[in-house]
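Posted in: Structural Biology > Protein-Ligand Complexes

Title: Requesting predicted complex, cytidine-5'-triphosphate in pocket

I'd be grateful if someone could produce the 3D structure tokens for the following input. Sequence and ligand are given below.
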Amino acid sequence: MEESRTHIVIGITGGIAAYKTMHLIRLFKKNGCDVKVVATQHAMEFVTKTTIETLSQNPLCVDLFDHSMPYNVQHIALAEWADAVVVAPATANIIGKFAHGIADDLLSTILLACRKPIFIAPAMNDNMYLEPSVQLNITSLREKGCYIISPNSGFLACGTNGTGRMEEPEEIYKDVMQFLNGPQPLSGKKVMITAGPTYEPIDPVRFVGNRSSGLMGFALAEVAAKMGAEVTLVTGPTHLDTKNEHVHRVNVETAEEMYQQCMSVQEEQDIMIMAAAVADYTPADPAKEKIKKKDDQLQLQLTKTKDILASIGKVKRDNQILVGFALETEHERENALKKLHNKNADMIVLNSLRDKGAGFGTPTNKVLMITKDEQTFESELKSKADIAKDILNVVCKLL
Ligand code: CTP
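-- Reply #1 --
Done. Output follows.
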């Protein structure tokens, strides 16, 4: 899901807390962010290039004039690439340089060039931290619009007890993500999403399937996780990947497997969104061996699959939100409304087939959302990630 990945530049300066930044890199990566690390020469006394590159899966940047890099003006490119820059640990030195507009290495240059949110997590000896000029510099960074993640009190590496210990990586991660994602309206909520096509076997090598790419369901899963939800993504075969650790992926092939997986977790869900293109019919008696070519005609007997949306609609509690999708070619609104009521859903998302760029296999979509009380919300043609945001925002209103 490249389009929705958050870009984080992590700046590391020369403090012992740099070892904790390795965990911070891991947290951003585990949660689906792209991370590039810029370290000062002094930082490299505390951590290694191999560790940083292995964790971030990107080349480490240290030098302002690194001729091996693919672009010439590296500090500008990185400042533009970033959605946020996080300096952790931030020494008195980098804080002082940034506060006074000094740019004498790659990191300090990026900080001056960057117009994105900048987070500074100071870490130093308590006397240094409380020294008036350092405090003045921190105040001046706050006034510039930087977000200061204040250090904790406690045992410091220099052997004293005081304020100056870098905030824990988990807290830094949370602060940054909350700032970037805004409030997390789905925090503490469980969301189940179905995605992709189903493959119904004809014989061991052939199947009946459809052209669903899974993009809409995967986008919903990523956005729901970013909004704070724990997501179970039950997906048919697709080439898509999800890296967010709050998205628990369950792979299935057939409509029956998808039904079984959904039914086994539906009770504990707060929200269920059925974005999969589930086969309505499946070969009645799939052949055990590969079917050989014989007559001019071959007839396939198909039987109806279980309707997952309708089955959940029958058992769901009033405090569970159930969302279905509809793809109609005629009497769109009427048919969608019929589906909404017949399957006891709380909302139906009507996919447009009339608009170019909407529907199956495309990266964009255009939808009309209709709620149980027949309120409608329309989304223009936009990326599936943005449509997913619109859908989940309406779901939040229903909660
Ligand atoms: N759906 C489901 N289980 C099925 C078939 C469909 O959960 N066996 C869900 C889809 O995920 C979607 C909704 O039902 O959210 C509507 O799917 P759609 O195929 O448009 O509707 P059907 O009820 O199958 O009706 P029809 O194909 O006749 O339009």
